[in-house]
Amino acid sequence: MQDRFAHLQRYTHSIVNVSGMLPMKIGRNAPCPCGSGKKYKRCCLSASQAVSDEFRDSLLSQSYDSIEEMQAAGDMIMAQQNQRPQDDFLGLSSEQAHRMLHFPYDTPALFQFPEQLSIEPCAPILMLIEGIAQAIDEKGLLATKARGALPQKLCRALWDDYSKLHVDEIFASVHSVNKEDDFYDLNVARIVMELAGLLRKTKGRFYLTQKYKKIINESGKKGLYPIIFKIYCSEFNWAYGDRYNEVSFIQQSFLFTLYMLRQHGDKMALTSVYEDDFLQAFPMMIDEMEESPYSTPEEDFRRCYTLRACRGFLVFLGLAELEKIEGDKVYEQKYKIKKTALLDEVIHFELGKVNLPENSVCH
Questions:
Q1: Do β-strands 335-339 and 111-112 pair in parallel, antiparallel, or remain unpaired?
Q2: Which fold has domain 245-349?
Q3: CA-CA distance, 111 to 96, in Å (whole number)?
Q4: pLDDT of residue 19
Q5: What is the pLDDT of residue 351?
């Protein structure tokens, strides 16, 4: 029996994380290797202690003929622990959360991204992409000489239509567009098209690629959107153009944001609900923000998350609609958000029944 406990102690003082890494020694205050953003002592350390207790109980109630058999039993207990729902992850298991963060496109058993949609997608970014495409004929579209950007006439024409539908009225009334850089969303749409191989610039002129023409001819926007979506999530830098820290984890966790929208999005909810849930799952993200004399790191992170994830991602890609709460001060503007029908077309979650924790309430 003493030999058993000696091996048990050695076994349970190490941990195998959800990615299948070999046992390692991890400091209590070190970032947890599961990628949650929490300290190890507040994340998987407690899980490993639970495994130790469960394994100890198993050891006392069963007999093992070999060290290998004991190891296999411990591995099974660890796997079961990783698959248990966690309130901090809105009912996801540690394993599911890990796959979301690190293997979103390589886990079809849990997350599926159809290559063609069954409904016609509608999204602000598509409106701009169509506008660019319609302005380019076989001779191409002449770029500006100074910066090689989209021409002023096109930028202004697209702004006139776009601002009526997708821009705050107060901002639209005072903002003027003289060049592509003045129209951030258009600039992003053009960059995404180039990253996706749909648009190229040669000898000072923009041309649509054969790839774009083939997709549009064969499947239209139903086939175009999934390509735009993937490029926006995996290659375009969400931190581009804003003044916050890089905080690349917001983009890395795009699938967790979609999961939150799936859980809360049937009705309008404050964007602060999504901020709260994100920080509950990944509290150390606050440490990524620089100190400011005007606001706390948490306040800055919340603004950054709403700007990039809610407005720049969910709304810009047509996955959610935003409602401004009137009467608030501009610098403290509050919003509500709700999913659109496009969300369930773009991503299929195969997670089984996931129950929200009792304290997760939409306002």
A1: unpaired
A2: Arc Repressor Mutant, subunit A (1.10.10)
A3: 10
A4: 39
A5: 84
